[in-house]
Design goal:
Blueprint lengths: L1 E6 L6 H10 L5 E6 L5 H8 L4 E3 L10 H12 L3 E5 L1 H14 L3 E6 L6 E2 L2 E2 L2 H11 L4 E4 L2 H10 L6 E3 L13 H11 L6 E6 L8 H9 L4 E6 L5 H10 L6 E5 L15 H7 L2 E4 L8 H8 L4 E3 L3 H4 L9 E3 L4 H14 L8 H5 L2 H16 L21 E2 L21
Parallel strand pairs: 1-2, 1-4, 2-3, 4-5, 5-8, 8-9, 10-11, 10-13, 11-12, 13-14, 14-15
Antiparallel strand pairs: 6-7, 9-16
Length: about 425
């Protein structure tokens, strides 16, 4: 089988990195087309041997991109098109239908209660999403929480399949030698108490709360990996609080390992250098960074993380859910600081989110989408998984009102 993955951009982000990791475990030929921004993840995919094409789309209303996309899909002779992120889902599903592709699958990576991909939701965004969703054969939700949100929007339950994000846990296994080396390379005192965070530096992640909390703990350091529009504001905040020497804004780092020259520590090495991990975001679709931190044996404080909030507490005993207020975070961090550094065994939830298992579940969704009859594009796929697979179709929900007709061009989810 030959599949095309269409994604809005390939800068460093959770959805982009998850696509790269999945392609390493899918037993088929896969090409990737990015509508915009062929960034660092595009380079990583090419290094993995994946063909990556940049469509050169100029914006959400670049309607000229649609016929170019249709022609590309037709020339490629793809059996299946898989779309990722809002703009790619809207344009990609329509282009695949026009190109006559047998089946289209879309993954919803970043749907919050009131925002999508970190931007506020609007009625137009929701209406267009629902109209384009009906052009596909199946929609993949990365968590039960996202699946419930999709159904709340009006996506038929039989079309929604839960395939969680995954990690390669072995990459994050704790190594004390890596801890010492990373601390030395990052300029951290060997015995310093180090708090960590990973994610895009955008308002919704609320890293300003984390900066304030660490600044309030004399002697504590913060390693914050990620980049985004809030970076300058976070740097100014650290200076205003007199903590600029203890707040380390590291920029984007490779989630899969150190840089090729070995000089820049990647996320696994940075996690080894930390003593506690914090996810202060109020809205998450999954919470992949939390799972990676747990795989590294770190205690975790989080405001919300569907990847573990949807499961029994015994699955992630090292994770503690806290409120969104800064006082509770400061108190929790102080408790860890006073108790001293401790490493935990990876909890059961880490095995649950193995990337190889996620790839197998996704293959089951592909089988549904490609099946004749109800699995054809634009119709609901069969609800039963093949024996031995783990993909879950959501149970039938009450009938929803019809979605409005699509707008002339995709609305900007902002």
């Amino acid at each position: 089988m030959k599949a095309l993955h269409i994604i809005t951009g390939l800068g460093i982000g959770g959805a982009e990195q998850q696509l790269r990791l999945l392609l390493r475990h899918l037993p088929m030929r896969c090409d990737v087309l990015t509508l915009t921004n062929p960034g660092p993840v595009a380079e990583g995919l090419r290094a993995d041997g994946v063909r990556v094409v940049h469509l050169g789309m100029r914006g959400n209303r670049d309607l000229g991109a649609l016929p170019r996309l249709v022609r590309f899909i037709r020339r490629g002779g793809y059996d299946l098109v898989h779309t990722h992120l809002y703009r790619a889902c809207v344009y990609g599903r329509l282009a695949a239908r026009l190109a006559g592709v047998a089946a289209t699958v879309a993954t919803e990576h970043s749907l919050g209660e009131g925002e999508i991909e970190g931007r506020p939701l609007s009625g137009g965004v929701r209406a267009l999403y629902l109209a384009s969703e009906r052009l596909g054969a199946a929609t993949v939700a990365v968590s039960d929480t996202v699946a419930a949100r999709l159904q709340g929007w009006g996506v038929p339950a039989a079309r929604v399949h839960v395939v969680p994000n995954g990690i390669e846990a072995v990459r994050f296994r704790f190594d004390p030698q890596v801890r010492r080396a990373t601390r030395a390379r990052t300029g951290l005192p060997d015995r310093a108490f180090v708090v960590g965070g990973v994610g895009r530096l955008v308002p919704g992640k609320r890293f300003d709360v984390l900066v304030r909390a660490v600044a309030a703990l004399p002697g504590a350091h913060l390693l914050l990996a990620g980049d985004g529009p809030e970076r300058a504001a976070l740097r100014r905040l650290a200076a205003e609080l007199g903590a600029q020497s203890r707040i380390h804004l590291l920029g984007e780092r490779d989630p899969l390992g150190d840089s090729a020259d070995g000089r820049t520590p990647g996320i696994p090495a940075l996690l080894a250098a930390m003593d506690v991990f914090v996810s202060p975001s109020r809205e998450e679709a999954f919470g992949l960074a939390v799972i990676e931190a747990l795989a590294a044996g770190l205690p975790v404080l989080h405001v919300t993380c569907p990847a573990i909030d949807d499961l029994p507490a015994a699955q992630a005993p090292g994770a503690r859910r806290i409120g969104s207020g800064p006082e509770e975070l400061v108190a929790a961090l102080r408790g860890h600081m006073e108790a001293g550094a401790t490493r935990l065994p990876p909890p059961p939830v880490v095995r649950r989110y193995d990337i190889a298992r996620s790839a197998e579940q996704l293959l089951d969704v592909y089988a549904h989408a490609l099946a004749p009859g109800p699995g054809q594009a634009g119709r609901a796929p069969a609800q039963q998984s093949r024996p031995g697979s783990g993909a879950r179709s959501r149970p039938p929900a009450p009938a929803q009102a019809s979605a409005p007709a699509p707008a002339p061009a995709p609305a900007d989810p902002s």
